[in-house]
Amino acid sequence: MWTVAIVALLVVTLPSINVVTIQDSSQVGCRLLESSGTVILTQPGDFIIGGVFSIHTSLKTTELSFTHIPESLQCSGRELRFARAMMFTIEEINNSTELLPGIKLGYQIYDSCSSVSVATRVTFQLINGLESTFSLSAPCSNSATVSAIVAESGSTPSIAMVPTVSPSFPPVPQVSHFATCACLSNKQQYPTFSRTVPSDHFQATALAQLVKRFGWTWIGAVHSDSDYGNSGMAAFLAAAKTEGICIEYSEAFYRTNPLSRIQRVAEVIQRSTARVVVAFVSTGDMIVLLEDLLELSLPPLQWVGSESWVTDPAMTQFHMFLGAVGIGIRRAVIPGLRTFLLDLSPAQASASPILREFWESAFRCRLQLQNAYTDTSQLRITNMVYKAVYAVAHGLHSLVCAEQNGSTLHCDRGMKPNPLQVLEHIRKVNFTLNGNRVSFDANGDPVATYELVNWQLSENGKTRKALSLDEYADMLHVCVYKSLQVPKSVCSESCPPGTRKAVQRGKPVCCYDCVPCAEDEISNKTDSLDCVRCPSDAWPNPQGDACIPKPIEFLSFSEYLGIILAASSVVGACLAIAIAAVFYLHKDTPIVRANNSELSFLLLFSLTLCFLCSLTFIGRPSQWSCMLRHTVFGVTFVLCISCVLGKTIVVLMAFRATLPGSNVMKWFGPPQQRLSVLAFTFVQVLICVLWLTLSPPFPNKNMKYYKDKIILECDVGSAVGFWAVLGYIGLLSLMCFVLAFLARKLPDNFNEAKFITFSMLIFCAVWITFIPAYVSSPGKFTVAVEIFAIISSSCGLVMCIFVPKCFIILFKPEKNTKKHMMGKVPSKAL
């Protein structure tokens, strides 16, 4: 047995839009009454409530022709249940002691036969009495025979009835139980209309958000080519666009269209890539479409339906209906209704043609009656009828009943209320009925409350039933049953993090390509429209979905290059110290004394500092290390070159002094030598002080050479200061080289000038090649080139000036004599 249960509860309070709808009903077999359009169920009372229902209808409408007899209308068990529910509600109110006490409500219920013209005619009959005709020359009666009308199940007949009701004097209030057209909220066009069922505008919005919640961004759409389908689908398409849902196709059809038109719609569904189809169609149209689809080989489809067909048990005959989800009017329980429906004796049935017809068709010698009439498990629209009658009764109660003597409630049963007053009081009702709040807004609409339904196989796997979920959420966060396998329907798969969506030319926005982000950009969420550039100190990870800090690179003591350079620096310093120790131990020997021991020790000390200053270039640059490395380097090298320059001048002066009458040595004795070294060094100190004062070196994160890493280096600050320090060293080196070159013809045994010449040649060669290498080397290799130049030039001085002398001191002591030193004289004077 079919049952529909709650999937999720939606409460919508959105503005309405103009929509015109038509509602078809499910059917049971029955023959057409010849009395269609006349009153079929009636009961006298103090106040009469009219009712119009499409009790007779046709599932398949055929065009009239001269060769075929039109198909007879059939009795709708569901619509008959609506009419009987109205009778039950009025009987329940008449038995109530709280609502309209002492007042008996009556009813006049008509069958519109699903015809707009019949609905219009019976409306005139309700207003002016039982006369079904009227004359344009004869005015309408000044007072209506009914206080209000509960009608109609469809929007189109309801729309046709309102102009009939409103021009009457006075106009009669109309409360509909199933007319969902949003256009009926326009009180300028339909001032007397109210309803207990939500507007289609809310349903369309709810359907769009339901589709969005399940992640279906690429869908197909079909709708009835009628007021209901066209207007409802227009509202859905507008809501879908707002939600970012793309529509692959939108096809309209009607059940009376030629077969080729229906087949074309079916083929569009078959060929499409969308796996979700939203159907805003009536039940009759949906049955026609599904029958045609059964003949085609279809991929698995997920149907999303409007309230017109998604809760109709007639759909269960189609296997493709399994798994359908949609919006349904909230179901309810009406105590006592089923008993009332079944409590229908042959005597009662024979008193009414419509009941007699139903009785003859329904029982057919069966003891159990199972049909749409007796099915009270899905009291959705029936509950709307129940609410509508109670709304009219509460409106009449507030109008004709009043308290007397402060406590006694008295109702004036003889009062002839003005229908405008009835309308005003109906609009103001606010009461609770079986746990549901009943009220109307300024447009005569109730608060929109829906249920989400999902049809699934029952536990036995044979019958189908609605899947019952007890998870509730608001419309924006619909809970999904954990066992429900949600199909996928997208034009393009989601773009993973690390990529962005690029819309395909000429296609909807839901069809796109996934383009990887640029090398310095990321996207950290699925379906990103744009990639985000990483900060300057960060770089995308390999997946491109996160920015990670760029690795900071500098010449450290832990890497091989840093270890080799640091070891070379220490070895060079140790060599200088060792030579100084040898010289100190042999300070009284001729070769040491002949080489100006004071300047030699000062030179060895400065060379030791030159070797060690290279260590300041290794390690993480800081503010102090950057200032220290360049200034120490500049000062120590000037001190070193100043000593070499002093030794060169001493050599020249010494041999000048051997000439007759020369006293040049008194002008460049030890005090002058020390002063010259101090003066040359002071100039470099002054340059460094100015440099550090005006624009000192500082640690800088260089991001120019590499995009994926940061070079942490010492920026020289002032380029002028940096090149002034190097330029001054170069100037002194050039002077020293020139003077040493002039002393190249000194005696072979006294070869100090020759060695100085070679050492300065190496020194200048190293630093000349250093400049282009320094400028072109990237990152930490710039520092390595500078350290290499410092160590190489220092080693050149040590090897050329001191190693030969140490060799003589340690391995050729016989040459370390004054006689040997004075064995030769220059062949000619300089």
TrEMBL record:
List the Gene Ontology MF annotations in alphabetical order. Answer: G protein-coupled receptor activity
Q: Where is the signal peptide?
A: 1-19
What the entry lists under InterPro entries is as follows: ANF_lig-bd_rcpt (IPR001828), GPCR_3 (IPR000337), GPCR_3_9-Cys_dom (IPR011500), GPCR_3_9-Cys_sf (IPR038550), GPCR_3_C (IPR017978), GPCR_3_Ca_sens_rcpt-rel (IPR000068), GPCR_3_CS (IPR017979), GPCR_3_vmron_rcpt_2 (IPR004073)
Where is the protein localized? Answer: Cell membrane
SUPFAM superfamilies (UniProt xref)? Periplasmic binding protein-like I
Q: Which Pfam families match?
A: 7tm_3, ANF_receptor, NCD3G
The record describes its membrane topology as: Multi-pass membrane protein
Q: What keyword terms does UniProt attach to this protein?
A: Cell membrane, G-protein coupled receptor, Glycoprotein, Membrane, Receptor, Signal, Transducer, Transmembrane, Transmembrane helix
Q: Which residues form the G-protein coupled receptors family 3 profile domain?
A: 561-825
Q: Per its UniProt record, what PANTHER family does this chain match?
A: C-FAMILY ODORANT RECEPTOR OLFCD2-RELATED (PTHR24061:SF528), CALCIUM-SENSING RECEPTOR-RELATED (PTHR24061)
Protein name, please? G-protein coupled receptors family 3 profile domain-containing protein
Q: Which organism is it from?
A: Scleropages formosus (Asian bonytongue)
